[in-house]
Every structure is written in structure tokens, then in C-alpha cells.
User: What shape does this take?
Amino acid sequence: MGQVITEPTTDRGRATVARILDAACVLFARQGVRATTLDEIGTAAGAGRSQLYHFFADKADLVSDVVRFQVDRVLSAVQPSFDDVNTATDLRAWGADAIRAHASSDDPIRCPIGSLVYELDRSDDGPARATLKAGFGRWEQVIADAFHRVADDGGLLPGTDPTVLAAGLLAAYQGGMLLADVCGDVEPLRHALDTALAAALGPPPRRKRARPKSTAQ
Assistant: This one.
């Protein structure tokens, strides 16, 4: 659970906090952080104002906890796929799977935590921005660990730095999703990931063309 001012001690309390955070995540994604009021969050969560202020000091406190909640949710989703990456082939498969998942989904091509960057005020949301920055750092480390395993397997291009490559891949992923969302097309994300992976692994191996079968005379 996040840094709520009063930690719930019962299953009912924990369920209430979870509903509040879930509702806030949905509303922030739909209409933005600034445009969303505490009353709207409470109504969507089925929680009264007294419950909101029992668990959260104010909206800024809730926003910070939502960011932490989203970071944990995203990392719990992406980490298993990177934990399975040990070779260059695994890394290329991860890229293909990421594109396939976004292409087959009806949801907007958008990162739940990346989209928060532009919603947080630099002065008023300091703790939330710090949480977001730390979340990206954790994500980058997960990718770097995968790159180090690929390097140990001999899969990276000579002279490349797994840590730098991880930062580049995460930046390509975030930027690619932004452009894909604007364009309504997954291709910008595909190009961004292909370019980042090529910088780490080199161009993908060409598929051998099957020879046409000769017809017996």
C-alpha cells in the first residue's frame, strides 16, 4: 500500500483505499489530474469525503499515492517479461510481443505512468514527481538487468553499455507510445523499438527465402 496518512487496519479499510486509488487512476487517465476533483473520486469509489480525508491529507497526498500505485502496477506487469530475457533472441521477442500487444488492444497506446509526467505541476506536486522519477529509475534498472544478461550471453554489439542501452530503450518506448497515441497507429512505436534494439543488437537477421520447389519433367 502507499503512503496514506492512516494505514487501513481492516480488510474493509484496505478495500476502500484500493477503490479510491483505482477510481483516481481511471479519472486521472480520462480527464487529467487537475480537472479531477476529490468529490468525483469519492463518488466513483463509493467513498464519502470523510473517508477520503481519513486516509489522505489532501488531493496532493492522494495524487502522490496514485503515482506510487500506478508505478507498482506497471512494474509488476512489465518485470516478468524482462526477467525472461537472457539472449538477443529473447530481447527481439520482447519487442515483437510489445508491438503485438499494443496492436491487438482497443485501449489507447499510452503508458499509465508516462502520461502522468505532463499532469504533475513542478512546484505543487514535488513528492509525486519524485515518486514518478524513482519509478522510471526502477523500470530502467529492470531493463538494464536484462541487457546485462544479454551481454553475458555475448548478444550485445561490442562497445555498448547495458546501462546506456536501457535508458535508450525506455526513452524509445515512452516516445514511441506518445507518437503512436497521437497518430492512432502502432507504427511509430514499432520504429522506435526497432531502432533502439538495432543499436544494441545490430540489424535483425534476414530471413532466408525458401527455394522454389523444382517441378519434375
About this structure: The chain has two domains: 1-57, 70-201. Residues 128 and 167 are 21 Å apart (CA to CA).
